[in-house]
Design goal:
about 130 residues; mainly alpha; 2 domains
Amino acid sequence: MALENIARQAVALGVAAQLVLATQYVGTARAEMISTDTAISDHVDATSRAALLTEVRRDDVRAELVRQGVDPAEAEARIAALTDAEIRKTIAQMEDNSAGASVAGTIATVFIILLVTDLLCLTRLFNFTRCVR
């Protein structure tokens, strides 16, 4: 009977010690509301980073990086190290430098120049214009 009591006390002491040690390192949880803008911004930043990494992983982009002497793995590591603001700026620059926009701008500029020269009677390309003279 005495041995049984000692065993119970030892087990109880061991369980109590485990409970104390298990709850010792539990941190407090903090919950707070975040705005929709913050949630969307976080999602957009993550998506933009993934899109940029996807572009770098394309075969033609990798070939161009290698041709210019840049290691593609190093380029990916640098993209991973960029801040969210730098990612947003890079994506914006990529969208601004699209080939279609420059072609459309060039066509519009040529059209306006030809229209003005038609109005000044220097050329006669468009039937819908009249000379200013």
